[in-house]
Amino acid sequence: MTKQILLSLSIIALFVSCSSSAKIANDADSRRLVFGNGGGFTGIYITYELHEDGNVYTLLPDSTLQPVKKLRRKQTREIFAQADKIKIAQPVFNHPGNITWFIKYHADGSVTEYKWGDANASVPDEIKDLYNQLNTIVK
User: Fold this and answer.
1) What is the pTM for the complete model shown?
2) Is residue 102 part of a domain?
3) Is the dihedral of CA 20, 63, 95, 28 positive or negative?
4) For 101, which of 37, 91, 106, 125 could close a Cys bridge (C-beta 3.0–4.6 Å)?
5) Domain tally for the chain?
6) Taking phi first (over 0 means left), then psi (-120 to 50 degrees means alpha), and beta for anything else, what does residue 108 get?
7) Backbone dihedral region of 123: left (phi > 0), alpha (psi from -120 to 50 degrees) or beta?
8) Residue 86: which CATH number?
9) What is the per-residue pLDDT across 2-44, written as a single tens digit (0 to 9) for each?
10) Residue 5 maps to a domain
11) Residues spanned by the domain of 79
12) Residue 2 located in a structural domain
């Protein structure tokens, strides 16, 4: 009986430890960039997160984050520096469309959000450049 319980616990521990996705604590003091696109007919959004430590994740339908890759420290610092400059120059941009692209910058306990997709709105080049750079990382 004891061997069966021990075997059962070992198997459960094995399955739990081998999980490829993880819930990541979102510390209010840590910086992260959440980006992606979606909407349209399906309403589905594809979402990624770049954390300050260089880890890149994709957001799964069950709200867990699955690791995608880890960036070099220098590249991560450059991306966050670019996001800081945009945050100062363009504190908000909210022009969603049927299909919407977005960047959410979590820093200093607040969220700066950029949404675009409206054909009548001109997206600032700095926002487009940051999005393209982030999107290149996950492709």
Assistant:
1) 0.79
2) yes
3) negative
4) 37
5) 1
6) left
7) beta
8) 3.30.1560
9) 544 433 434 444 344 444 444 444 555 689 999 999 999 999 9
10) no
11) 22-138
12) no
